[in-house]
UniProtKB/TrEMBL annotation:
Subunit details: Interacts with LIS1.
GO molecular function: unfolded protein binding
Protein name, per record: NudC domain-containing protein 2
Cellular component annotations (GO), alphabetically ordered: centrosome; cytoplasm; kinetochore; spindle pole
Cited function: May regulate the LIS1/dynein pathway by stabilizing LIS1 with Hsp90 chaperone.
Principal location: nucleus
Pfam family, any one: CS
UniProt-annotated stretches for the region Disordered: 138-157
InterPro entries per the UniProt record, alphabetical: CS_dom, HSP20-like_chaperone, NudC_fam, p23_NUDCD2
KW Signal (keyword) present: no
CS domain boundaries: 14-104
Localisation: Chromosome, Centromere, Kinetochore; Cytoplasm, Cytoskeleton, Microtubule organizing center, Centrosome; Cytoplasm, Cytoskeleton, Spindle pole
Domain of life: Eukaryota
Length: 157
């Protein structure tokens, strides 16, 4: 079995003061650096459809309204090596055109170049899903790829 598209093609991260976030067609990943030795009982994490709140040892790290809605029951967080919190949110809208421009409504926005790279990657991921026999992980895309790129679904195969 081959690796998922995002593992073969890499990620396009958006750096933040506390770590980074990145996305695929279906998910948003948040990686938060925490003090070494952090234990799960030190972490308070609330994941709701449009809101996130994370505090470590009583200190607020991240809180606010998410850029778009997520599926509450499918959001998870894990503490890895007692120094990294990884949060995975499942997008409600999983179209290639749904490229989050920021993590929260008014915070942690991707700069224009990173945003462009994120949209290109989501468009290629969509092409991979529509054409499972081809490997688009090393492909380059140019032209009209905003909003998920052109729609070829009506073409005859």
């Amino acid at each position: 079995m081959s690796a998922p598209f995002e593992e073969r093609s890499g990620v396009v991260p958006c750096g933040t003061p506390w770590g980074r976030w990145y996305q695929t067609l279906e998910e948003v990943f948040i990686e938060v650096r925490v003090p070494p030795g952090t234990r799960a009982k030190d972490v308070r994490c609330s994941l709701q459809s449009r809101h996130i709140a994370l505090s470590v040892r009583g200190q607020e790290v991240l809180q606010g309204k998410l850029f778009d809605s997520t599926i509450t029951d499918e959001g998870t967080w894990t503490l890895e090596d007692r120094k990294l919190i990884r949060i995975v949110l499942m997008k409600t809208n999983r179209d290639a055109g749904n490229c989050w421009t920021s993590l929260l409504e008014n915070e942690y926005a991707a700069d224009p170049w990173v945003q462009d790279q994120m949209q290109r990657k989501l468009t290629l991921e969509r092409f991979q899903r529509e054409n499972p026999g081809f490997d688009f992980s090393g492909a380059e895309i140019s032209g009209n790829y905003s909003k998920g790129g052109p729609d070829f679904s009506s073409l005859e195969k």
